[in-house]
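As a warm-up, study this chain.
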Amino acid sequence: MKILEEQVQQLRADAESVGISLDGMPHGSGGKKTKWESLVIQLADCEHDLMKEMSALWSKTMEANTYIGQIRSAQYQDILVRRYLKDQRWEQISYEMHISWQHCFRVHGRALTELEKILQDNNKM
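Now compare it with the structure written out below.
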């Protein structure tokens, strides 16, 4: 997704550097496809691909959140959400949860074990 975001930014910069107006209004060229039009088409394609990827990522995030929410321990849920959904570093997690770094890893391991059981139960259905 990061690569697509960079492509969109680069195409936007290229389009603006050659004077393409990205205001959404049609600007005709007499039926002949110009370099600028090709650039705008590439930009639209990249933006479309990026939106599809973002939608898929959102769907997977919601699915992960649903499974994590089935864990009975609030502490286990908290550590998994912070690590995998909020992308926090271990140092930040242990600091904000007021636990040692080592304990953070122990709790994380237990949380993953619980999550694995939930995933196995859901796959049996």
